[in-house]
Specification:
The protein is mainly α. It has a domain of 75 residues: Winged helix-like DNA-binding domain superfamily/Winged helix DNA-binding domain (Arc Repressor Mutant, subunit A). Helix content is 65%, strand content 8%. The protein has six helices and three strands. The protein has a three-stranded antiparallel beta sheet. It starts with 9 loop residues before the first helix and ends in a 5-residue tail after the last helix.
Length: 148
Amino acid sequence: MGLRSLEQSLPMLLLRAREAVMQHFRPLLAEHGVTEQQWRVLRVLCEQNGLEAKDLAKRTLMLQPSLTGVLDRLERDGYVERRRSPGDKRKVTIWLTRKAKRTYDRVAPRAEATYARLQKSFAGNDWEILYAGLQRLIDLNGKRKHVD
């Protein structure tokens, strides 16, 4: 069997699927003045506020330099604040502001409604099958044998 065409390769299909999904969310985010990356940060911090940048980078799947720029803009726009730990001045944690929480509270229900509309476009339990298949694919990374 030969190599699949670029258009049918799994990485390209996943990128195109991500793009197709984000088309439904971008107008909502733009309406509230936040980018996709900023929204990811807000969502993570709403689940667990007060994270260090390295933990936030892992949870948002962003490289540290990209996250730094996103955090700089979020801080400039009043969505987050950086706080130094009283016990260890080298440790900085990221915290949501009231403005960020208000924005999250306005966007989250509409984002959830968008997910519901997407789910309705799938027949039967195809949505759950999609999620399960993607999770199995992700889990393969954790089962990979590392060679040193």
